[in-house]
Amino acid sequence: MYSVNKLFVVLGFLVLLSGCQGSPAPTPAAGPLEGVWQVIARTGADTDTGSTEASIQPGLYIFGKRHYSMMYVPGGDPRALFGGTLNEVTDSEKVQAYDTFIANSGTYEISESSITTRPAMAKNPNFMTGSHSSVHSYRIEADSLWLTIESISIYSELPGPKTTTKLVRVE
């Protein structure tokens, strides 16, 4: 009888404990970069003057907790439209279109002064080998973000002038 009572006490205690749950782990706060950012200005893109581009072309940067995606038109001129339908696009038009935008996605690491991106997918297949990265210095004020390209590991020198891109948070 003693062991039956002991068994009921142990079972009752286990049932009681099974109903107790700790509070769920807190959701980590969003990092300062998380969100969608739209390009609104770029400086240093003109090698002769180093001035801000008068006509900014479309660009979006998206940052999650660990991953990023960016696509933008680096020049001041709009991309040329294809002459015919998609079935009529020439190889020459495809090459010209390829040269008019930057696109890559992957993971990023952030420190107090820099963002290092490591592309898993990129328009340039040589940039997505797993061994390349780019480093930007950055500054955030309210809903504005400034990114200055410091290095791109696929190049021994930056391909053109050092540029700073200003973005605003849109989401």
From TrEMBL:
Record domain Lipocalin-like: where: 35-151
List the InterPro entries hit by this protein, alphabetically: Lipocalin-like
Q: What is this protein called?
A: Lipocalin-like domain-containing protein
